[in-house]
Amino acid sequence: MKLSVVATLYCSAPYLDEFHARVTQAARQLAGDDYEIVLVNDGSPDDSLERAIGLTRIDRHVAVVDLSRNFGHHKAMMTGLASSRGELVFLIDSDLEEEPEWMGDFALQMEAQSCDVVYGVQANRRGGWFEQFSGALFYRAFRLLTGVGQPDNIVTARLMSRRYVDALLLHEERELNIGGLWVVTGFKQVQRIVKKHATSPTTYSLSRKISHLVNAVTSFSSLPLVFTFYSGLVISLSALVYIVYLSIRYAFIAAPPSGYTSIIASVWLFSGLIIFFLGIQGIYISKVFSEVKRRPYTIVRQIYGHHDGEGPRP
Helix (H, G, I), strand (E, B), or coil: what is residue 286? Predict the structure, then answer.
């Protein structure tokens, strides 16, 4: 099979018919009749699943992977990639904020530059000042703490070769961050500037962004653990120097003044630091706990659709 188009469904019902029509047209221009459209229902609360199943009845190129519940966007994307069969795989969101027609331009650039991945990057991040500021802060913090060179304002849309997708699927961690995995998988990857549309309000609140950053950093770097060691070392040396200073002052100058406020402030400060450092270690321990159990990161309830007369997908 020449081309697979992979998309996830979550509250996608208003866009699904137009998405299918536009993807079909773009796929036919690129691959003729040799393509498939893999839709992964990530526990969508609306009727996205029913609409998608309806597409499988009228279009043999469509397959629907129905997950047993909502597992999250990144895990659903990986499940869709694992279900794809094309020599080229185009990954895209189904809410039409990213244009299905990009796949033709991506394919031309892939051929011209002999690369394995062409991915979209926004020239200017959409949203207000807080959205732009928090987005820029996330990418800078992620690169600083992990050393992984993930570009700013990257979007989901990307065209990938089969060998790259197979290599990407070798990553088997349960608490995955797909943005980092895209980078560390390697191969020659080139970017293309795109303009992302705004069809719906973002679902990423500030708390979700912070949680996403914590998960991303702890998935790719042990630097926070190293930071706790050096922080403890600096605090211990500072305390030792202060003890020496107080001893000299008490012996040769005068007794240091007593102060209840300073004592309480010091206790609160160091107690907070201890709890903070224990929390960092706890995050890593929880990740180890999750990984060693080897639970599947998604569970497929049912697969709908037929391909080239082969019957249901396995």
Answer: helix
User: Are 4 and 90 a contacting pair, CB within 8 Å?
Assistant: yes
- Paired tokens of 281: 């270690």
Residue-range domain boundaries for the chain? 3-220+295-304, 223-293
Of 141, 133, 126, the closest CA to residue 215 belongs to 141
29, HSE (Cβ side, Cα atoms, 13 Å): 15
3-state helix, strand, coil in the chain (%, to 5): 55, 15, 30
Q: Which of 95, 97, 99 is nearest to 10 (CA)?
A: 95
Q: In what order do the strands lie in the sheet with 117-122?
A: 189-194, 117-122, 154-161, 88-91, 3-9, 35-41, 62-67, 300-304
Q: Which two tokens stand for residue 58?
A: 């009228």
Secondary structure letter of residue 18 according to DSSP: H
User: Could you report the per-residue pLDDT of 142-200, keeping only the tens digit for each?
Assistant: 677 677 777 778 889 999 999 999 999 998 887 777 888 888 888 999 989 888 877 55
Task: Assign 71 to helix, strand or coil.
Answer: coil
| DSSP assignment letter at 67 | E
In CATH, the architecture of 3-220+295-304 is Alpha-Beta Complex (3.90)
Q: Which two tokens stand for residue 296?
A: 């599947």
Judged on CB neighbours under 10 Å (0-12, 13-18, 19+), 248 is exposed
First to last CA, the chain: 16
> What DSSP designation does 246 have?
H
Nearest-Å Rg of the Cα atoms of the chain is: 25
Structure tokens at 261: 């406020």
256-301 pLDDT per residue, tens: 556 655 676 677 677 777 877 777 777 777 777 666 767 788 889 9
193 DSSP β-pair partners? 121
